[in-house]
Design brief:
This protein has 1397 residues and is of the alpha+beta class. Helix content is 16%, strand content 30%. It has 26 helices and 78 strands. An eight-stranded mixed beta sheet has the order 14-13-15-12-17-19-20-21, sandwiched between helices. Strands 25, 26, 28, 30, 31, 33, 36 and 45 form an eight-stranded antiparallel beta sheet that branches. A hairpin with a 2-residue loop joins β62 (1174-1178) and β63 (1181-1182). It is elongated, with a radius of gyration of 49 Å.
Length: 1397
């Protein structure tokens, strides 16, 4: 039996073998004369083998023979049990194993029983069998059949010649088995120089590949050597990396590999060089050091999202703003940032020396393997790498120490760098932008995958680690691979002849490694090198410069330029091999922090080299991919990105560079060309609004949904079909907020969804329309401009800046569900659109301007019609507008009709009423909304609108048996605005119908709900006495007429209320204007020449005017019909409903429950000549005008605290007085008319206006202007607030004293309370005018007094006083008139448009 023995005092193990020549055949035991023989001796019985320390303590397959005994586990616990015979098959390069037997008795595992050389089988017949020789040998060597059943001695005796031959064969096997491993372990003879030329010396690693992908290199190498070989298979590239424990093992294995007929690649691993000609840190200024140190010290406690302010226009990184990063502007990165700063879904793998992943300017942009759980020691994602969270370190961990020094490197899961190179490179790609520290990367929103390939001792890089990193990068999703390394050459090397043959193998290695990257369309950006070498010449003679010289469609080779746009002195070049350049001299970027409290001088610094140019281009490529993938495409677009980078590069002003394109990269042009290649809408869309929130009256999360009849081309800018229905898609289900389904109409219709998008940064945004509907049925618009939709149903547009953008989505013949999602420039994820619906102005109802925002009382004016049940549809409800003709009208002081009550209230005398359609409107009065509000309605079918915007839609319940309660989204309202609240309703049948509206003081479900009438006021119906008691409006009697001069651009209809009328007149004009003077009356039959004496003589022929006359009148016309003349130029509205459309009477609704209320009546004429009579007929006679049955509300009142309901506010009522301006009358002024609109006079002034604030308490003063106004006709415009001080509503008598040569008009709210129509000249005598107004108590009423003066002196005198009430006269018996009721400040007047400042 062979045995293993340790030799004391040595590191040798004696392996005992039998003496072949004298051994008995039946047992092959030890010959008694056998002695230990050191060294290699094929015929000796003992061989002494030196085993390395690491081998002596582990299982070893070095042992060359089968018969080896187990040794003491105490000293050799790792040695294996006896191994089987090993035979080599000549047909294939593989190893086969056969079971062996011990004394002919196989054990259960086929090995037999060790330490029992003469053991016998329990089988009775075993003693008569051949035990040592397998039957195979009998068949192969020609033994007779009968010899199989005899003993060993008999076999020898019967076959002496064959026995001798077998003995020699066994001896040969033993010699081979001994010599090979001993040679391997102790060293083999040196190879010839010619062999080294084909196979240069180097590390004990081979890179191999076979033509048969499934072939395993270990199957070619004898299994006895496998123990000393580790193998890595790169499946994508079909490369196998074999690491050998010793060079001798490598050489022996190489022989077998080289001889294999399927071998396609066999090369020794070869070194790479990091391409930095020099390292140079810079010294930052003390201020920079202090600022950056402060930030770095706070990084751990600072919220990353707060610090990272993504804005591609303004960059606050100090090294950029100080000009240290000159290369950013040189490559026009800022131009690219106008479109994109990259997206996190673009991953750039940096294959280098690792990176400082805790660097504050980089750590936020580290790629994270989301499928790996950090630190659990498990390969969670099954990719073969444990805990690879941010990348992988392929050779940076020390795996063996000797005498305290690292002597072997291996892989780890922490690619943290220990030098500056990899960190510098990674920072150039993706250093964080706008965090207020350090620098910015070229693509500051992409992610960096860190792959360290430098070893842990010298920092050297080998090709085997690079190609393994390629495999990892492709497997884990990298789209760009940045390679700042290359083949090592001496400075200025020039190829003068063919390269050594191994260069072909090196090239083939990279060619094969890059092939799967090209197939996946991954871009590889490689450095051209820093040896000042002509790479064209290298390529010509077959010298490898890798990876740059590999001819691969996905690889781009990068040279370097200096600060002056010349080729950098060190940069390699080549007119056909180096594609383009990027700055590579004096490049600022990140450096490795040496300790937890780093010296800041080592945190940022300068490096030179194509190693720096390469990540700059990688960053530009990442920006390009962000655009190329913005329309929903893949990020794997290497060839397209490469073509764009080459085509968009710039030739420097100094001339072409010595590269293929002759150019330097241009990031801005690359990004722009990428957009053009996709037909992306790179035309900049400007935001309509900026700011954190829309400054609109109403905002809430939702889409406006409008249906149109499909007519013609529905995707032109204007929709030609009429509106069919209108609804809202609110944000009550935010996860599916922009998922559209359940359309009200389909075939023959088009639906439009409108909302505002808040875009946080400028750049390219992609909208994905995921739907089964054909793309040609979809239309998308930003700011009213169409955005092209690709065949993949993705549209991309370029936002010029952050802000709010109007979005519209149109779908023709809607039926299939549509999911609208958006991807932002700094995000790789499509998310449902968080859109906001808004209304910025008043609603849809055409009423006179005084009533817009003028709440008068808490009553609701309801218009409605009885219809058949079949007519009560969502479409009919949507058409319930003021343009519709209604059968009935009524006023209700509460909008609360419980179930079953609606029919009784609306149709008290008509039990047959089965269905109803109608609407009502009012004003939500001004109040603070700190937490927003939610409206709730209970109805069978209704819509609730704010400022014309649908906020609740209950269209689905019209024909249901029960009413439905529905709540709006959270509504954000301004505290400075009044809101038009409208309710459209339709119910069929009416039996269980309800209508009840409420609101909450916040948006929580737990907030208490209040009846809407507590904050809602009516504006169309009005009770004058109640309005005065509630301090909401005063009043005077009569009809107000406002006249507009058409030469100033009269609107076709009176929907532009921003322009003040030219003149204002109240009718009837009574000399002593008593509030209820029964004798003061007139008829609605007059011409403008009569209202404005002198106008006719000063008006050019053909001049026309616009006239609006309005008042509040009793419940109905006495005759039930009206007629208007001239009819073709008139429109009339009663109670907010159009009753006359310019041609015919549309009908006056019957009145129910009007009671004490008056309803607004207004008539508007356009383009009327000055001599044409304006007539309104009540039956056969003109409508009677008087001061008692017609009332005009004096609205827009502010309370004692200065808060108002009409947009006016007295922020500071002191000093008490009025604010005035004086302006000279323009040429052509009509002496007998006092102008109300003084815009022309102000514009004609040409110099700062004389202004004054009355220092007196009241409006009684004299202003002196000096010679500038002497003898000149002038207007003095006083603005202020009148304050009635009494404790109850009163009728006030007021007096205006006109001096000689002057006339005065007084306006309160929007009503003329005192006309001025005196013929005026310098000799016009002094006069006194009296008038009365009924006013509420303790409030501020906006008032305006205009004095027109032709006095020869340089003064203007105004005196407006109020008659004391009887109560006041008791306190002040000596004074009847007082002037104390006026208050204003200049600032208030200017800010609120009360005066021209």
């Amino acid at each position: 039996m062979a045995r293993l023995q340790p030799l004391s005092g040595t590191r040798h193990t004696s392996i005992v073998f039998p003496d072949i020549a004298n051994s008995p055949v039946d047992g092959l035991g030890l010959h008694p004369r056998a002695q230990p023989t050191p060294g290699i001796c094929p015929e000796g019985a003992f061989v002494m083998v030196e085993l390395p320390r690491e081998v002596r303590n582990r299982r070893s397959r070095y042992l060359p023979r089968a018969y080896v005994s187990r040794v003491s586990k105490r000293k050799f616990h790792g040695l294996p049990s006896p191994t089987p015979y090993i035979t080599r098959s000549p047909e294939r390069s593989s190893m086969t194993k056969e079971p062996i037997t011990y004394d002919g008795n196989p054990t259960a595992d086929g090995k037999g029983t060790p330490d029992s050389p003469h053991a016998t089988s329990s089988d009775a017949s075993s003693s008569s069998r051949v035990g040592t020789w397998p039957r195979l040998w009998f068949d192969m060597l020609g033994f007779r059949k009968e010899d199989r059943n005899v003993g060993d001695a008999a076999v020898v005796k019967n076959n002496k010649l064959l026995t001798a031959i077998i003995a020699l064969l066994i001896a040969g096997v033993i010699v081979t088995a001994i010599v090979v491993p001993v040679c391997v372990i102790h060293g083999c003879p040196a190879h010839s120089s010619s062999d080294q030329d084909d196979f240069p010396p180097g590390v004990a690693t081979l890179i191999v590949s076979f033509n048969i992908r499934e072939k395993n290199a270990l199957d070619v190498i004898p299994a006895i050597l496998h123990q000393y070989i580790s193998r890595v298979l790169l499946e994508a590239s079909n490369l196998q990396i074999l690491d050998f424990d010793t060079e001798e093992v490598l050489q022996e294995a190489r022989k077998y590999l080289a001889a294999d007929i399927d071998i396609s690649l066999l090369t020794r691993d070869f070194p790479m060089s990091r391409l930095v000609p020099r390292d140079a840190n810079t010294t930052l200024s003390p201020d920079q050091l202090e600022a950056i140190q402060t930030v770095i010290g706070n990084v751990g406690s600072t919220n990353e999202d707060t610090r990272r302010r993504l804005n591609a226009v303004t960059v606050n990184d100090p090294l950029y703003t100080a000009g240290n990063q000159y290369y950013i502007d040189r490559i026009n990165a800022t131009g690219a940032w106008k479109y994109t700063t990259g997206v996190p879904t673009v991953i750039v793998a940096v294959i280098d020396s690792g990176a400082d992943m805790s660097h504050p300017d980089l750590k936020g942009n580290m790629w994270v393997n989301s499928k790996e759980i950090p630190g659990n020691g498990i390969d969670d994602d099954g990719n073969g790498y444990i805990d690879d969270v941010n990348g992988w370190d392929f050779n940076g961990g020390c795996t063996m120490y000797r005498n305290g020094y690292c002597v072997a490197c291996g892989p780890t899961n922490n690619p943290q760098c220990v030098d500056a190179h990899g960190t510098h490179v990674a920072g150039l790609v993706a250093a964080i932008q706008n965090n207020g520290i350090g620098m910015t990367g070229v693509a500051p929103n992409v992610k960096v995958m860190v792959l360290r390939v430098s070893d842990c001792m010298s920092g050297s890089i080998s090709a085997s680690k690079v190609v393994e990193a390629y495999e990892y990068a492709a497997k884990m999703g990298a789209h760009i691979i940045s390679c700042s390394f290359g083949t090592a050459y001496t400075w200025g090397f020039s190829a003068e002849g063919p390269a050594p043959s191994y260069h072909r193998q090196w090239y083939a290695t990279y060619e094969q490694a890059l092939k799967p990257l090209a197939e996946k369309n991954i871009l590889v950006v490689a450095a051209a090198g820093n040896e000042n070498i002509d790479l064209d010449r290298l390529k010509k003679w077959g010298w490898a410069y890798l990876p740059c010289l590999v001819d691969s469609p996905n690889l781009i080779c990068i040279g370097a330029t200096d600060q002056y746009e010349n080729r950098a002195y060190f940069s390699n070049y080549g007119a056909t091999t180096v594609h383009l350049a990027a700055p590579g001299s004096q490049i600022y970027s990140l450096l490795w922090q040496n300790n937890p409290n780093p010296a800041l001088a080592s945190t940022y610094g300068i490096k030179d080299g194509t190693s720096m140019s390469t990540p700059i281009v990688s960053g530009v490529a990442a920006l390009t991919l962000a655009v190329l993938s913005s329309n929903g495409g893949s990020n794997y677009k290497a060839t397209q990105a490469k073509d764009i980078l080459l085509a968009s590069a710039d030739v420097p002003a100094q001339g072409r560079l010595s590269f293929l394109t002759g150019s330097r990269v241009n990031a801005g042009r690359a990004v722009y060309e990428a957009g053009r290649s996709l037909n992306v809408a790179l035309t900049k869309f400007a935001p309509e609004f900026t700011g954190s929130r829309l400054d609109h009256a109403v905002t809430f999360k939702g889409f406006k949904e409008t249906y149109y009849k499909a007519v013609g081309n529905q995707f032109s800018q204007d929709i030609s079909g009429g509106v069919v229905a209108q609804s809202v898609r609110d944000g009550l289900a935010p996860t599916l907020f922009s998922a559209f389904s359940g359309f009200q109409y389909s075939t023959g219709y088009l639906v439009s969804f409108e909302a505002y998008l808040q875009l946080p940064v400028q750049g390219l945004y992609s909208l994905k329309l995921a739907t089964a509907a054909p793309t040609n049925t979809l239309g998308l618009y930003i700011g009213g401009k169409p955005v092209p939709i690709g065949s993949n149903q993705i549209a991309t547009f370029n936002a010029q800046g952050a802000g709010w953008f109007k979005l519209e989505l149109r779908v023709a013949y809607p039926s299939a569900r549509l999911d609208l999602t958006m991807r932002a420039p700094n995000s790789g994820i499509y998310q449902y659109v968080d859109a906001v619906q808004t209304s910025s102005g008043p609603g849809e109802f055409k009423v006179s301007p005084h009533s817009i925002g003028s709440p008068l009382n808490s009553a609701w004016h309801v218009h409605y019609s009885k219809v058949d049940i079949s007519a009560a549809t969502p479409q009919a409800m949507t058409s319930a507008t003021p343009d519709m003709q209604y059968q009935h009208t009524g006023v209700f002081e509460s909008m609360r009709m419980i179930a079953g009550e609606m029919k009784r209230v609306l149709f008290p005398n008509d039990p047959s009423a089965a269905a109803v359609i109608g609407y009502t409107s009012g004003i939500l009065k001004k109040k603070e909304w700190p937490h927003g509000t939610r409206l709730q309605v209970v109805c069978k079918g209704c819509q609730v609108l704010l400022n014309g915007l649908v906020v609740i839609d209950v269209s689905e319940g019209i024909t249901s048996s029960l009413s439905i309660a529905k709540t709006s989204s959270c509504l954000n309202l301004r505290s400075t605005d009044n809101y038009e609240l409208t309710v459209r309703f339709a119910s069929a049948p009416l039996n269980a119908a309800a209508l009840y509206l409420s609101y909450s003081e916040g948006c929580s479900d737990s907030d208490y709900r209040f009846p809407i009438q507590t904050i809602a006021l009516g504006r169309i119906a009005w009770s004058p006495e109640d309005g005065a008691k509630q301090s909401r409006a005063g009043y005077v009697g009569g009809l107000q007429c406002d006249i507009y001069r058409s030469a100033n651009g009269l609107p076709t209809y009176f929907n532009d209320y921003s322009k003040a009328p030219s003149w204002k007149v109240r009718l009837p004009d009574c000399p002593a204007d008593d509030l209820n003077a029964p004798g003061c009356s007139g008829t609605w039959n007059f011409a403008l020449k009569d209202l404005l004496p002198g106008l006719q003589g000063k008006t050019a022929a053909g001049t026309t005017f616009g006239v609006r006359c309005w008042s509040y009148i009793a419940d109905k016309f006495s005759s039930g019909t009206i007629d208007i003349s001239p009819a073709d130029k008139a429109e009339a509205y009663l109670g907010g409903i159009q009753v006359f459309d310019g041609k015919v009477l549309k009908g006056i609704p019957s009145v129910a429950n009007m009671g004490k209320f008056l309803q607004q009546f207004s008539v508007e004429w356009v383009d009327v000549p000055i001599t044409t009579n304006l007539v309104v007929m009540d039956g056969a006679t003109p409508l009677r005008l008087d001061l008692t049955s017609m009332r005009l509300p004096i609205a827009g009142i502010a309370d004692v605290y200065g808060y108002d309901v009409d947009g006016l506010r007295i922020a500071n009522p002191e000093p008490v007085g009025t604010f005035s301006t004086t302006v000279v009358a323009i040429r052509g002024d009509i002496s007998g008319i006092l102008n109300f609109n003084l815009e022309k006079e102000y514009d004609n002034q040409g110099k700062p206006l004389p202004t004054a604030v009355s220092a007196q308490y009241g409006l009684e003063t004299e202003y002196s202007y000096g010679s500038m106004f002497a003898r000149r006709l002038r207007y003095t415009d006083f603005v202020g607030f009148y304050f009635p001080p009494n404790y109850s509503p009163q009728t006030y008598t007021m007096k205006v004293d006109n001096v000689m040569g002057a006339t005065t008009s007084v306006t309160m709210g929007d009503v003329t309370v005192l006309n001025s129509n005196r013929a005026l000249n310098r000799l016009t005598p002094a006069s006194t005018d009296l008038f009365q107004v009924h006013l509420p108590t303790f409030c501020n009423i906006p008032a305006r007094v205009i004095v027109k003066s032709g006095m020869e002196s340089e003064t203007t005198v105004v005196k407006l006083t109020t008659l004391r009430t009887p109560t006041d006269q008791l306190s002040y018996p000596d004074t009847v008139w007082n002037t104390w009721q006026w208050a204003a400040t200049r600032e208030d007047a200017c800010a609120n448009g009360l005066a021209r400042c």
